[in-house]
Amino acid sequence: MLAVPHTVDVAGCAVGALDRAAWAAHLARCVAAGPGHHHVSLNAAKWRAMQRAAPLRRAVRAAPSVAAAGAGIRAAARWLGRPLPGRATGCDLAHDLLARAADAGWPVALLGAAPDVVDAVAARWRGVGVDVAYARCGYFAPDEERGVARAIAEAAPALLLVATGTPRAELFVARWAPVLQVPLAMGVGGAFDVMAGRTPRAPDGVGAAGLEWAWRLAHAPRARFRRAVLGSAGFAAAIARGDRLPP
Ligand code: UDP
């Protein structure tokens, strides 16, 4: 387990001060360093969920690396006078690491999303030479978790991508790490839906301009739109008030 060389405090959460390329390189070193590295992608919604839920807070704080995944976290860091050099979403890093997995021969486990989605993602990456040693959908009962963790451990992946959403992904990795014994495990949100072409991805220029949130909002269903607007406003207000995550 390797520590991130430089972190900044974003309202009570230590966030790695790395850009996307540096994160991909760091996480590749983590794969080589042996079991137990948990990587978390932090956005405003997750920060707010951490404010409310102690188990998620504990799981994220125990993770040795946390990346700024959203424009909101970068804006907050700037506002707090500790700017971050870039951002890296779970989806970006999943792409970068799967591309490396093909060259490096890392066995990979994919957990999450609907059955046809995870199967499509597994087929896509197998098609470019990735050894997908395990693939399972993300819909299972809490009492099945132990069996899922054991099956992943048996497949002995170098990299585990968990696309079950927050907080399920973070809590699953934190709870089952001793069974999993995976070098690198990370939550990747809705990345499988994007990879399978079920969720449209913002064009590159939009992401680079830090406007992916606006693009996603414009394409979101009405309920999600409402939640996202209220969530972002709530996060901005919390940061402006000087709120920090509870201990
Ligand atoms: N999902 C899952 N199991 C569940 C609930 C959700 O595998 O019990 C999947 C869902 O199919 C989708 C992803 O988790 O692919 C959620 O993506 P989202 O972008 O909402 O993730 P978040 O932003 O919450 O991390």
Short summary of the structure?
By secondary structure, the chain is of the alpha/beta class. Helix content is 52%, strand content 16%. Helix 1 (20-32) crosses helix 5 and helix 2 packs across helix 12.
Strand elements, count: 8
Strand content: 15-25%
The average pLDDT score comes to 93
Radius of gyration of CA atoms, rounded to a whole number: 17 Å
Distance between the termini: 24 Å
Order of helices and strands: EEHEHHEHHEHEHEHEHHHH
Largest sheet: 6 strands, parallel
Side by side, the strands of the main sheet go: 4-3-8-7-5-6
SS element count, helices: 12
Principal-axis shape equals globular
Low confidence ranges: none
Comma- or semicolon-separated keywords:
52% helix; globular; alpha/beta; two-stranded antiparallel sheet; 6-stranded parallel sheet
Description:
This protein is of the alpha/beta class and about 250 residues long. It has 12 helices and 8 strands. It has helices at about 20-30, 45-50, 55-60, 70-80, 90-105, 115-125, 145-155, 170-180, 190-195, 205-210, 210-220, 220-240, and strands spanning about 5-10, 15, 35-40, 65-70, 105-110, 130-135, 160-165, 185. The strands form 2 sheets. A 6-stranded parallel sheet has the order 4-3-8-7-5-6, with helices on both faces. Helix 6 (about 115-125) links the parallel strand 5 and strand 6 (about 130-135). Helix 2 crosses helix 3. The protein is globular. The relative contact order is 0.17. The mean pLDDT is about 95.
